[in-house]
Design a protein that fits this description.
This protein is mostly helical. The chain has one domain (5-196). Helices cover 79% and strands 0% of the residues. The protein has helices at residues 5-16, 18-29, 34-66, 70-89, 110-115, 118-130, 135-154, 156-196. α2 (18-29) packs across α8 and α3 (34-66) runs antiparallel to α7 (135-154). It starts with a helix and ends with a helix.
Length: 198
């Protein structure tokens, strides 16, 4: 499966899961003054963007240093995506991060791992490994995905009131189903690359 610009944006949005993160952000930012919430969301998205951008530029070097092949990255990325998809489909109400520190959240768990989690990092590394010559296309795709995530989280409370918690859960499960298909495709792609290299 060749990754186009549009599909890369969709995949990044699926793995960043802005709609699925809305309940977490709303819950953690509830004790914070309303005037501070937007600033915190912007800061956390900027940190996540910086982390993912680092892996866009240095992901290939990291893979080379670790001696990882494209097939192993495809298979590992597919497995991680599949697990994330299952989490999205069968998410439990209490969330996935357990207890979080009191006070204003900083980096953890909002920027990392909610937005720039292992799956998002693996995804940007995978895109770079497949087509390093399209680096600026991947940077633009990442920027678009972060901006959509930012807007979704800024309007998190309004979205929650509009569609309700059940509506958010239904949307997230739908995205989980789409992500499952993408994960299987990545797994098959990794196996195909491995078999061809034998």
């Amino acid at each position: 499966m060749d990754i186009t610009f549009a599909s890369s944006v969709v995949i990044l949005l699926l793995v960043m899961d802005p709609l699925g993160n809305i309940p977490l952000f709303v819950s953690l930012l509830r004790p914070v003054e309303p005037a501070r919430r937007t600033a915190i969301i912007v800061r956390e998205c900027a940190i996540a963007f910086g982390v993912l951008l680092t892996f866009v530029f240095f992901g290939r070097t990291i893979l080379d240093v670790l001696g990882l092949s494209d097939s192993s990255l495809n298979i590992a990325g597919g497995v991680i995506l599949f697990l994330i998809a299952l989490r999205m489909i069968f998410r439990r109400p209490e969330g996935v991060f357990g207890d979080t520190p009191a006070g204003e959240p900083f980096i953890v768990p909002l920027a990392i791992p909610s937005i720039a989690g292992p799956t998002a990092i693996a995804t940007v590394m995978l895109m770079m490994s497949r087509a390093p010559e399209r680096i600026w296309e991947w940077i633009v795709a990442l920027t678009v995905a972060i901006l959509v995530t930012l807007l979704s989280l800024i309007f998190a409370e309004r979205i929650t009131k509009l569609v309700g918690e059940r509506g958010l859960l239904a949307l997230e499960r739908l995205m989980g189903l789409i992500l499952t298909a993408i994960a299987v495709e990545m797994l098959l792609r990794g196996i195909e690359i491995f078999v061809r290299g034998l």
